[in-house]
């Protein structure tokens, strides 16, 4: 469901900046058919439309249920959000643990992989980029994200 922004005549910098997360998910690695378990933070800069907040969780879970890679999942979420909503920018950060690194190969039990996709105004405006990073770092309790 799409909604009009609250202030369609406001300048872009006054329109809504939405960030949802952590969105917990479990997926299956397309290479090893082992679980990927993690959290996603999905942000967008409103253009003319807003999407219901619960849809950000639905989009994330829809794509995480497929055989995928963490990198592809980031892009799939960003692509889907960009299709109908047409935001000024989209940012997706995913942090996950991969059971393939725990059960086989290096047998690393404590590592987490982070992936980040930023599009539109997030790439053009360093302040928006930093704002997204600070919002998710505060929620994730992870100072490395803000760096």
Describe the structure.
It is a single chain. It contains 6 helices and 7 strands, in the order E-E-E-E-H-E-H-E-H-E-H-H-H. Helix 1 packs across helix 2 (70-85). A hairpin with a 5-residue loop joins strand 2 and strand 3 (35-45). With 147 residues, it is an alpha+beta fold. The chain has helices at 53-64, 70-85, 99-103, 121-124, 126-140, 143-146; strands at 2-4, 17-29, 35-45, 49-51, 67-68, 89-98, 113-120.
Properties at a glance:
147 residues, alpha+beta, five-stranded mixed β-sheet, elongated
pLDDT < 50 stretches: none
Beta strands, count: 7
- Helix-residue proportion: 25-40%
Output the radius of gyration: 16 Å
Strand content: 25-35%
Main sheet summary: 5 strands, mixed
Q: Helix count, per DSSP?
A: 6
**How are the strands ordered across the major sheet?**
5-2-3-6-7
SSE order, as H and E? EEEEHEHEHEHHH
Amino-to-carboxy terminus distance: 35 Å
* Net shape: elongated
Structural class: alpha+beta
Average pLDDT over all residues: 85
